[in-house]
Amino acid sequence: MIDFVFAFWVFLNVLLLIYICEELILVFAALRYKKPKSNLNLDNLPAVTLQLPLYNEPYVIERLLDACMKLDYPDSLFQIQILDDSNDKTTALIENYLAQKCTRKIEVQHIRRENRKGYKAGALDYGMSDAKGEFIVIFDADFIPQSDFLLKTIPHFSHEKVGVVQTKWGHTNETYSLLTRAQAIMLNTHFSVEQMGRSFKKAYINFNGTAGVWRKSCILDAGGWAADTLTEDLDLSYRAQIRNWEFVYLNDVETPAELPITFEAYKTQQFRWSKGAAECVKKNWNLLWTAQIPLKNKIFGSFHLLNSSIYFLVFLLLLTSPLIYYFAALDKIRFPFHEQLGIIGLIVSSLLVLVFAFGQFMGRKVTLAQILWFFPSLFIYFSMTAGISIYMAKGVFEGYRGKKTAFLRTPKLGTNRQYAIEKPQGNSLFSLTTFLEFAFLLYGLFYLFQGISKGKAEIVIYGAILAIGFSLSLFFPKISWKWKK
Asked: Which are the contacts of 9, defined by CB distance < 8 A and separation ≥ 6?
């Protein structure tokens, strides 16, 4: 039986290695990335509409509006749509701001809908009919655009087939705690490896839901915003690129935003992204592979769409790896190449660390402090990934099945220390997910103890990742882990 499990474990590592190799290809492509050329003509700027989709954002709304009012662009060509679906004091704060603090002579629409139909996608689509701009700029509530954002992005639309310009996310609170440092590694890898690499390879990238600019005609040509997935940004991105619209990624234009400060907020965000990506696979897979587009785009696009499905691999590897290393320590495995067990794990894990290291440090001035924080932060990221793996696998499975769930927002707290979040669905005290998470916690603790008693570092590492990750999920979901002001 253990030999069968070992063979299955090797197969899982091969699949993970294929995924890592694709990431390494993007790393080498990102190293060759060059800033796209633009054509700035200040005498002939187009009209721009700024859309701000909001739902209950009292802690960050005034900061967002302040930043948007400071954007450098002619007033006569600038329109702001505040797409406000709030049912709390956010609406009153917006009304007060517009009455007392709005000093620019620009058109500002405070748009309220009767209901939240379609959530964010519904709000964006609702505002389109009154959007006067040739280009649509979108910012989520926690983003703080720099004053020159428009003058750095709009010129990249000089080619009529450019449909989107996406910029890099920064982090206002990266050093807040180990949890935020860990998330920053993940996001930095996405932008500095995946977005840069795909951009250089002229493969499909995606609009990240915010801090980007759309050509209005591109949105309309691709079929408009749709609310049938939880990741409307990824869905529209693929529909647009399959119709031969080009996307431009600017790694040198960075807009800071807020990272979730609690594990529960992170878990909710990742569930929405992962399930939504699975829904996009179901919706766009056939469209991608039947389109008259280069094979390269189909292959890279497939890896991109399947990113969230990596949680199935994570779940199964977490289940089998401690067991394999434990029986290897007991010399119970009798299978071809079982002596190379440690080499297999070392190769896969080293390559994975290499990808994240490139993502974290590429294009940045590296300090000793950043290097010292990298490894503990990466370990916490692996632990967080373990802690959400069951919940994410459940979400991905639901996405492929077509089961619909509500759009749960990620809380944006600004400088406020109070914490509140919509309750994650299907994660009650007596749910199957909670039971499995508790079982995995015990599983991790068992192998942590066994690894220590047998002096096997690899067993200790896997046991610790499992124990820490599922402890965060079960017992510390709302603790922000901040240790300094």
From this structure: 317, 320, 321, 324
pLDDT of residue 122: 97
Tell me how far apart the alpha carbons of residues 352 and 359 are, in angstroms, rounded to a whole number. 11
Enter the tokens of residue 136.
Answer: 């649509």
pTM of the model: 0.92
pLDDT at 425: 47
Q: What is the 3-state secondary structure (H, E, C) of the chain?
A: CHHHHHHHHHHHHHHHHHHHHHHHHHHHHHHCCCCCCCCCCCCCCCCEEEEEEECCCCCCHHHHHHHHHCCCCCHHHEEEEEEECCCCCHHHHHHHHHHHCCCCCCEEEEEECCCCCCHHHHHHHHHHCCCCCCEEEECCCCCCCCCCHHHHHHHHHCCCCEEEEEEEEEECCCCCCHHHHHHHHHHHHHHHHHHHHHHHCCCCCCCCCCCEEEEHHHHHHCCCCCCCCCCHHHHHHHHHHHCCCEEEEEEEEEEEECCCCCHHHHHHHHHHHHHHHHHHHHHHHHHHHHCCCCHHHHHHHHHHHCHHHHHHHHHHHHHHHHHHHHHHHCCCCCCCCHHHHHHHHHHHHHHHHHHHHHHHHCCCCCCHHHHHHHHHHHHHHHHHHHHHHHHHHHHHHHHHHCCCCCCCCCCCCCCCCCCCCCCCCCCCCCCHHHHHHHHHHHHHHHHHHHHHHHCCHHHHHHHHHHHHHHHHHHHCCCCCCCCCC
- The order of strands in the sheet holding 48-54 is 107-112, 78-84, 48-54, 135-138, 212-215, 162-171, 246-257
CA angle 215, 168, 188 (to 5 degrees): 145
Identify residue 129 by its one-letter amino acid code.
Answer: S
Pair type for strands 162-171 and 107-112:
unpaired
- Number of Cβ within 10 Å of residue 335's Cβ equals 14
Question: Does residue 69 contact residue 102 with C-beta atoms inside 8 Å?
Answer: yes
Flag residues of the chain having pLDDT under 50. 419-422, 424-426, 483-485
6, two tokens: 């070992």
- Could you give the residue numbers annotated as active site? 85, 233
Instruction: List, for residues 295-342, the tens digit of each pLDDT value.
Output: 999 999 999 999 988 888 888 888 888 888 777 776 665 555 555 566
